[in-house]
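Q: What does the assembled structure look like for these inputs?
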Amino acid sequence: MNMKYTITTPLYYVNDKPHLGSSYTTIACDAIARFQRLNGNNVLFLTGVDEHGQKIERTAESKQLMPQLHCDEITEKYKYLWDKLNISYDRFVRTTSAEHSALVHQFYSKVLKADDVYMGRQSGWYCVGCEEYKDVDKDDKKPICSIHKKELEWRDEENLFFKLSKYQEQIEKLIQIDGFISPKSRKNEIINFVSKGLKDFSISRINLKWGINVPGNKEHTFYVWFDALLGYVSGSLCDQTSPELTDKSLCNWPANIHVIGKDILRFHAVYWPAMLLSAGMETPRSVFGHGFLTREGQKMGKSLGNVLDPIELLEYGGIDAMRWYLLRDIEFGEDGDFQMRRFVDIVNSDLSNTIGNLLNRTITMSKKWFNDKIPVDATLLAESPLKYQSELRINQYMKSFKDSNFKNSANAIIELANSANLYLNDRAPWKLIKDIANKEIVAHDIYCVLESCRIIAILLNPFVPDLSIRILNQLKIDSSTINFQQALHWGMLDPDNGLQNPSPVMEKIEFNET
RNA sequence: GUCAGUGUAGCUCAGCUGGUUAGAGCACAGCAUUCAUAACGCUGAGGUCGAGAGUUCAAGUCUCUCCACUGACACCA
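A:
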């Protein structure tokens, strides 16, 4: 097939170090990217950071750093974490890069040509945290932002405006398209919002140095959102060094999916497509707004002091545990609750007890009775109930994964492992082998279970690539070139290939309350 | 305030157009047990299905009211 498939995480705001929420989004994207690659698609997996805006400027100031240095510092933390989480991104976009600002200028000139920009005046109470004007009473003397609990600032300034209202009908049509906005519940909210009439929005700020300058308007810099969203384009250009918005240069555009948190869905599903329409570019194929994570039933926040640091979690449970738990136990799209007890239980049960132990017990038997080779009768393979099971579960897995239903996909893997465990208990090869006449039957049984393990390892790959490779290594399978189309056929395991000595592929996590 | 969604075992959730003793996984208890990471397997205990009222021969499943949580919009701060 070899289709181009472009997937993006949000460009994370470098106001602070990465938190569990951004890790969650990024892990989900990584799973999708890996899944698509295994399906033979040519994937461009894009992530990056959004570095401009007043909030950054002030944060840097409070740290007595130049904004750029502050951004560099935080950007490094993101890169470090993505590295630790084995995120297979292809490009990392920085909105402070020269290429990016060149692209923003190019894009802006297109929007200008479309006659979609005008100078307007905006006054009102402004929240720097939100980077947004708030609808509050003008007579109020000390209004406070309901989200940030900070005092608002009075602003009265000239801004450039983008004619969002002009795209009312086109946006209405776009958001109706089946699959454009997921999950469905959020789609309805956006439709509702758009139906009330789109208002033009400002795309520039004055008196803000930390931003990309607006050509022709010295005092102005671009509003962070206008700037940040374009990072998706600058990151997906074929040749990033010479940003030109032509059909050729846009070979990775449009994005197949923007994965974001539910809080910024409107920017992605409404503002962003309108901007692209204005510039005569294609709109993204889909936008997925996932839910938020709470911790032990409570919102995570600095004020509550219950923020879960991804690095800490990683050190505690390991990368496979973290990735597995987030993808397997939390409904993608819905809000989810992180519970330490459950984290430990789920990971131990699924990865150590069900899958790890299955592999371990089977390899042990194989080594004990057949040394390295399994004398299996190939003609019998086609009739194994495990063959049927694996096909059933592969189907379930594929179907669910395409809907970004990671939970159900992961369940399919566990079901297959359960079946294999049951099969062993049922066949009891350790009893059969006592009669040497049964050796062939036992070989067949062992082979079928090992083959199930191989398929399990491959299906696990997008979820927990490290564990997947550890399993394949024990089966002495080269993990560097696998793809679904070839690898998911029953009977691909070479019986003469030999096996590595078994050692637990997944250590258990010990639960300790902290 | 308006609209939408959710509320089912300790935890995470299934239960389509109403129909016999409400399900799964995890956790827990007991049994069994080595091929295996005290793992796998079997058995079991656990729910007045958010509350109340109504429709019906029959409601987790339909109607109404209320409560809690989540979100959107509006309003206020």
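Residues 4 and 42 of chain A are 5 Å apart (CA to CA).
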